[in-house]
Amino acid sequence: MNSLQTIKRILRTDVLVEVPVDQMQLDDSLRESYGMDSLGFVELRVQCEEAFGIDIPDEAVAAGELSTLGDVLALVERLSGADQSPTTA
């Protein structure tokens, strides 16, 4: 499972986003498209940290680096040193 698939799984199973995984797009706003609230963002952060073995700094969250699905993917890959294409679903 690549990074994008893992993030989508986290959104569906842990954050309880109702959008089907196959309809999630990189430019989807987590707040507008998925209806996430502050608790959802905390859960996403914690689950990504656990799944990828990374630490997402408060500054990244405050700077809006978790605004879209693509933002989350880019941040996770940057922090984990992963080099996977975001075009693979």
TrEMBL record:
User: Domain of life here?
Assistant: Bacteria
SUPFAM superfamilies this protein is in? ACP-like (SSF47336)
The chain positions of domain Carrier read 2-80
A Pfam family reported for this protein in Swiss-Prot or TrEMBL: PP-binding
Q: What is this protein called?
A: Acyl carrier protein
The opening ranks of the lineage are: Bacteria, Bacillati, Actinomycetota, Actinomycetes, Kitasatosporales
